Amino acid sequence: MDARAAVRLPYKDIAREGNFPMRKSDPHWVWGRFRKRATILSAGRKVKVACRVCRGVLASCKVPETKDQRGEGQSMPLDSRMVGQRSEAVTHDVDARWTMAYAAGLGDTLPGYFDTTANDPVLAHPLFPVCLEWQVGIDGSSDGIPGLRRDEVGRGVHATHDLHIHRPIRAGDRLTTVATTIGIEQRKPGAYRVVRFDTHDADDRLVCTTYSGSLMLDIPVAGDDRWIEALPEIPDVTSQALESRHYEMSVSAGAAHVYTECARIWNPIHTDRAVAKRATLPEIILHGTATLAMAVSTLVQQVLDGEVGRVRRVSCRFGAMVLMPSTLTLEVSVFGKGELGFQVLTADGARAISHGYLAWA
Question: What is the pTM for the complete model shown?
Answer without folding.
Answer: 0.79
